[in-house]
Structure formats: structure tokens, C-alpha cells
Amino acid sequence: MSLVIAQFVVGAFEAYVLVGVAFALMFLPRGVTRLDPRVAGAPKTLRLLILPGIVALWPLFAWRWIAGAHEPIEDNPHRAKARESLAGAGRAGGLAR
Question: Rounded distance, CA 18 to CA 28, Å?
Fold first, then answer.
């Protein structure tokens, strides 16, 4: 009985990875730039570098791609401070000109 369970677990893992690879092949050429426009100007080797993460976390990326989520999921004091700095720099830059 334990062999059947082990085969099922391995089969489920293989299916998960195969779906992840198929998703990554669709996502990396088009979808990654939709979620993060900064990737468009990055070297093509970056896509190879993030491939294992896309395969492993494909449900998260699929959900964000379908939902069209562009903003980061987390919101912390560091990000809030960065947004304030950018907004302040934009106002100051406009007044100085």
C-alpha cells in the first residue's frame, strides 16, 4: 500500500512540474513583462534565471497574470516610505524647473 501512495505522490509532483514548465513557456515571453515592465529591458538571461521560480510558483504567477495585478502583494513601511520619497521628489522637481 505504501508503494501506491509513493507512486501517487511522485506522479502528482511530476504533473505539477509539467504544468509549471508549460505555464513558464507561455508566461516568460509575454506575461512577465505585464507583471513587471522593467523586465522588458533586461537581458534575456534573466528569464532563464527566473525560470525555476516560475515553475515552482506557477499558481501564484498565474493568478496574478489573470488578475492583472501590477502592484506588489506586500505593503510595508519601507515601501510606504519609498512611495512618499518618489511623490515628494516629483513635486520638488516640478517646482524647481
Answer: 15
> Residue 84 carries which DSSP code?
H
Residues in the chain: 97
Instruction: Report the phi/psi class of residue 68: left, alpha or beta, with left for phi > 0 and alpha for psi in -120 to 50.
Output: left
Give the cell for residue 8: 501517487
Could you tell me the pTM of the whole model? 0.67
Query: Over the range 85-95, which residues count as b (16 or more CB within 10 Å of their CB) and which as e?
Result: eeeeeeeeeee
On whether the CB atoms of residues 31 and 61 are closer than 8 A, the answer is yes
- pLDDT at residue 88, as a whole number: 75
* pLDDT band with cut points at 50, 70 and 90 for residue 58: very high
